[in-house]
Design a protein that fits this description.
With 377 residues, this protein is α/β, with parallel strands linked by helices. The chain has 2 domains: 25-55 and 283-376, Aspartate Aminotransferase, domain 1; 58-279, Aspartate Aminotransferase, domain 2, CATH 3.40.640.10. The chain contains 12 helices and 12 strands. Helix 4 packs parallel to helix 5 (130-137).
Length: 377
């Protein structure tokens, strides 16, 4: 038998050129990160990741603990029970619902299903940087325009960036990290103007916190039920399940079917599914937490205004301000015991995002901000 010799043209394994120099996802600095550098973790409060400060709902904790007993078994195939319950809760057909391992997992699936080499996505800056990272993994490029002065997506400017190779347009509403929102009619007009071949992904990870009268519900409002529109929501934030990784999409059967084709059948764990299912009916606990967040948000805005920082009007569980050098501000506040998120990775080196914590954590944050300002004066 003759042997075949394959000449190597590289010094190592083949790696796709699309990910050359691709930075890994940049998560917010955590208390664990600081502790690893020698800081005393007990003296720090982590407010960089927009995590819910209260933990899972009591019913979710009980359901997750019970499910651990069956952890030797695979999760339910296709996540059928949670999909059915979400469909009933939201008033849509189950074929229009997909479940995945967190919002970032579903963004990845949308990218795999819809993007190819040479295509592009359109977003604003600053925004959630997973959009651009996942586009680049598929060999696609990102076209972006600055957010408006209030931190909301500039939909008119985005329309100018769409061409025949645009496959996804993201509208983060409320926007992460700035907290700005676009209203119902403006969003509908934008969707009307987007080509039918381009998918509009409305990322509503912070939907539960948005209380403005003009903020749209793109799932309940039948006007948004278009073939090329899909809405993303998550259990990570208001429901306190960030560590379990479960989120969902609602869209046309064609888009949901495409996502289901590219995702792993078991990617959401049985524990996460049990916790999400137990959380969904508890609207009273959800409302309680939303009210706590609104009160904490108001207190932080008042304190930041008093201290001269002029935060943008917030619509989620965080505040955004532009002190000029986001990293320097974050470093100074960490010296006072609070870890926040500079927005450089999301496209704005001047900005900082501060998560709204529990009432006690809000008090602690205000006190630390006051000490930081006094120390610099």
């Amino acid at each position: 038998m003759s042997s075949v010799s394959i000449e190597s043209t590289t010094s190592g394994p083949y790696i796709r050129t699309a990910i050359d120099d691709l930075p890994p996802y940049s998560a917010g600095r955590s208390v664990r990160d600081a502790a690893g550098e020698g800081a005393a973790a007990r003296t720090l409060l982590g407010l960089a990741a927009n995590e819910g400060p209260y933990g899972p709902f009591p019913a979710a904790t009980a359901a997750a603990a019970k499910q651990i007993e069956n952890a030797n078994l695979y999760p339910e195939s296709g996540f059928r029970s949670l999909r059915r319950e979400l469909a009933e809760f939201l008033g849509v057909d189950v074929a229009r619902v997909a479940v995945g391992a967190g919002g970032i997992g579903l963004i990845h699936h949308l990218s795999v299903a819809l993007l190819d080499e040479g295509s592009n996505i359109v977003t604003c800056t600053p925004t959630f940087h997973a959009y651009a990272l996942d586009a680049r993994k598929q060999g696609a490029t990102t076209r972006t325009t600055p957010v408006r002065a209030d931190g909301s997506y500039d939909l008119a400017a985005m329309l100018e960036l769409i061409d025949e190779r645009t496959r996804i347009v993201y509208v983060c509403n409320p926007n992460n990290p700035t907290g700005g929102i676009v209203g119902r009619q403006e969003l509908l007009d934008f969707i009307d103007a987007v080509p039918a071949s381009t998918t509009v992904v409305v990322d509503e990870a912070y939907f539960e916190y948005a209380r403005s009268a003009g903020y749209p519900d793109t799932i309940a409002d039948a006007a948004f039920a278009r073939p090329n529109v899909v809405t993303l929501r998550t259990f990570s934030k208001a429901y306190g399940l960030a560590g379990l990784r479960v989120a969902y999409l609602v869209g046309s059967e064609a888009l949901i079917g495409a996502v289901q084709k590219v995702q792993s059948n078991y990617e959401v764990t049985s524990v996460a599914l049990a916790a999400a299912r137990a959380s969904l009916p508890d609207t009273e606990e959800l409302a309680r937490r939303i009210e706590l967040n609104a009160d904490g948000r108001r207190r932080l805005v008042e304190a930041l205004d008093r201290l001269g920082f002029e935060p943008l009007e917030p619509h989620a569980n965080f505040l955004y301000l532009r002190p000029g050098d986001g990293k320097a501000f974050a470093k100074a506040l960490e010296a006072e015991g609070i870890i926040v998120r500079p927005a450089n990775a999301m496209g704005d080196p001047s900005g900082v995002r501060i998560t709204v914590g529990s009432p006690d954590q809000v008090t602690e944050t205000i006190e630390a901000l006051t000490r930081m300002v006094n120390a610099s004066s």
